[in-house]
What we know:
Layout: E1 5-10, E2 14-20, E3 30-34, E4 37-42, E5 45-50, E6 55-66, E7 71-78, E8 99-102, E9 107-110, H1 120-123, H2 157-171, H3 174-182, H4 185-192, H5 209-216, H6 227-250, H7 259-266, H8 268-271, H9 279-290, H10 299-314, H11 317-333, H12 340-355, H13 358-370, H14 382-392, H15 412-420
Antiparallel strand pairs: 1-2, 2-7, 3-4, 4-5, 6-7, 8-9
Helix pairs in contact: 4-10, 6-7, 6-9, 6-10, 11-12
Amino acid sequence: MITPRFKLTQTASNVTIQIRAPYCNLRELEVTVDENIFIFYTSPYYLRLHLPGRLVEDDFTQSSFDSESGQFSFTIKKAIDGEHFPDLDLITKLLTPKIEINEDNRKITIVANEASEKSQDELDEEFGFALCGKENFNHVSSEFKDVFEVDPREVNLGQRHKMRVQFEQGKFNIDHYLSDYIENEEILELISQESPYDKLKVDEIQFSDQELDFLKDLPNKTYNLSETQVTYCHCCLVDILYAYCYDRRTTQFEGTSESGWTIVKLAATFCWLDVFKTPKDALVSAFRRSVIYPLYRNFQLNQTVLTDLRKLLDLGEKHIIKCLIEMYHIFLTGDCCRYILNNLFIKDYIIYIMKWDRTKWREVVDQIKQVTIEKSDLGLNLQEIEDDVCQNFDLNNLRIRDEDSDDFSDSSSDDSSTESE
C-alpha cells in the first residue's frame, strides 16, 4: 500500500486533513475516525494517523474531493473545543510505528526503541547518529575513503579524535590563511551579505509538497538514548549545521556543486565520525576546519557564520528539519558516495528531532548564544601569525602567492591518501 501525501491544519474547533491520492479507486473509499485514530483507505492508498488529541467520531463537518488534483479534504470536530493539537506539521510522528516481521523465526519487531543503553566502552566502538552504530561498516561502501577520513572498524572513538586533531594540524596552510587575512575584499563581501534568516518568521515556515513527500516515507520510531548519547547527538548537530551555514554564506545562500564536499569536510561529525561533549567543542572544531580546508579561510568570516547559525536555531525545529532535508538531497545527488551519510545520520536526525526533549535542546541553543570562540581556542597560533605579519611587513604592498596544495579544488580522497602515507 502507498502512503499518500497529506498535511493537517487546525482551528480552535476542527482539524482539517488534506490527502492527495490521484490514482484512487473511489468505490473502495473508507474513512474512519476513532477518538485519536484517523484511517483513510482507497486502493492503492492507506493512511493511519495517531493524533495528539481526540476527535468526534465520524462527525465530519465538511468533506470534499477534487477529481482533477486527486485531493481529499476532511474537516473533523475536536472532542474538546479549543484544545490545541501540537506538532501537526511534523507528520512523521503521526504515522503508525512500522513493524518488521522476520519470516524465518516468525518474530515481530517494532521499529521503535531501536537504540539501547550502551556503556562508554561500547560507544567507543560505535559510529553514526548518536553512536548508535546500526550499520555494518563492511556494507557501507567499498569507496568509503571518498567520504571518511578514518575506518571505525580499526580506530575507536578516542583514537579518532586524537588522529583528527593531529591531521588537521598538518594540513593548516599559513600562506593560504594569510592571503585571506590580507587580501580579504571578496571575503568582506561575503560577510556583508544579508542573511535570509533575518526575514523568516517561525510561524510562517511551512513544509513544501516535496518535503511532505519525504517526511511521510520516513519510519516513525523512537530512540532510547543514554544521557551521553543525547549530548553527543545535540553537539554533533551543532557541528553539522555550522558546516551547512558556512556553505550557504560562501555561495550567496544558493549552494553549488561543491556544497556536499564543503559540508562533509567542515563537519568532523561526518568525515571523522567524531563526537563532541559540549557545543563549544563542536564550534571550535568547525572553526578550525573552516580555516584549514575550504576556499575561504578567515576567522572573521567564521564569526559571521556563527551568527547565521544562531539565527537558524532561533527559527526552531521545523526549519532545522528543512535544512536537513536539503542536505539529504545534496548528498543524494553528488558525484561521490556521500549518500551513505543520509542513512548514517540525516534521516535519523530528522526523525529524532520531531520527538526530542525540547527543553534539553533549548539549553544547547542558549549555550550557543553565550559562547565565544577566540583565535587561541583553535590551537593554530592564528593571532601570533597575524601579529608577526603586521609587525614585519607593509600590508598594503604584501602579496602572498597561493601555492596551497590543499585548496578547495582538491578532493577529500587526496587528504585520505595523505593520511594513509
